[in-house]
Automatic annotation (TrEMBL):
Coiled coil: none annotated. This is RWD domain-containing protein 1. The lineage of its organism: Eukaryota, Fungi, Fungi incertae sedis, Zoopagomycota, Kickxellomycotina. Residues 10-114 form the RWD domain. Gene3D superfamilies: 6.20.400.10, Ubiquitin Conjugating Enzyme (3.10.110.10). PANTHER family: RWD DOMAIN-CONTAINING PROTEIN.
């Protein structure tokens, strides 16, 4: 048995002990998978599968690996690209020693940070949405901000409206005066229309009413 083969066997035994049912064997002893899930208690958790294939000279050289997501994963292509990039850097830093546990630990930490980030993002977006709704509601009760230009425009309109109102009032007073003048009777007209006055004067003329002594 080569030195590399013994290191690989020892690593597999250790991984089985650590991950238990999450360590998934295959018919080929040089290939296996590890199911990785964050420890966060959230409504929707993410699950990844780290698929490992040993090379002849592992751990002196990097193993072949693949990251598999679950069918209902919310990870997008950008998340996956970032994951591969950072995991590849971890592999490069670990060359010369067994590294699958280090790789799996990194993926678990990545999932934890990603889920926390997305939860905070959703919370912040909801907060911003509520703040925007409140702002829109407040605008309904706030008048237009008065600027010097708006004030001058308003003052000019007010002056024109006041002049129109004054002119209308003057026309109304003039019309009322003319109507009153037209409808006013002279003293003679009033005298002639009031028969009682005419009869009363006639009595004085005829001497029917005794004069006071």
């Amino acid at each position: 048995m080569s030195e590399f083969a013994e290191e690989r066997e020892n690593e597999i035994d250790a991984l089985k002990s650590i991950y238990g049912d999450e360590f998934i064997e295959s018919e080929d002893p040089s290939k296996f998978s590890i199911r990785i899930e964050s420890d966060l208690v959230v409504e929707k958790n993410e699950v990844l599968f780290l698929n490992i294939s040993y090379t002849e000279r592992y751990p002196e050289e990097a193993p072949e690996f693949e990251i598999e997501t679950s069918e209902d994963s919310t990870l997008n292509s950008e998340d996956i690209d970032s994951l591969y990039k950072n995991l590849s850097e971890t592999v490069e830093e670990s060359l010369g020693m067994v590294m699958v546990f280090t790789m799996a630990s990194y993926l678990k930490e990545f999932l934890h940070d990603l889920i926390v980030y997305k939860e905070e993002l959703v919370t912040n977006m909801e907060r911003l949405r509520i703040e925007k709704e409140i702002e829109q509601e407040q605008k309904k009760f706030i008048g237009t901000k008065v600027t010097p230009e708006l004030f001058r425009e308003w003052a000019e309109k007010f002056r024109v409206e006041m002049e129109k109102a004054k002119a209308a009032a003057a026309d109304q007073r003039k019309g009322t005066a003319e109507d009153s003048k037209k409808g006013r009777l002279t003293g003679r007209q009033l005298f002639e229309q009031d028969k009682s006055l005419a009869n009363s004067d006639a009595k004085f003329v005829d001497g029917d009413v005794p004069a006071d002594l």
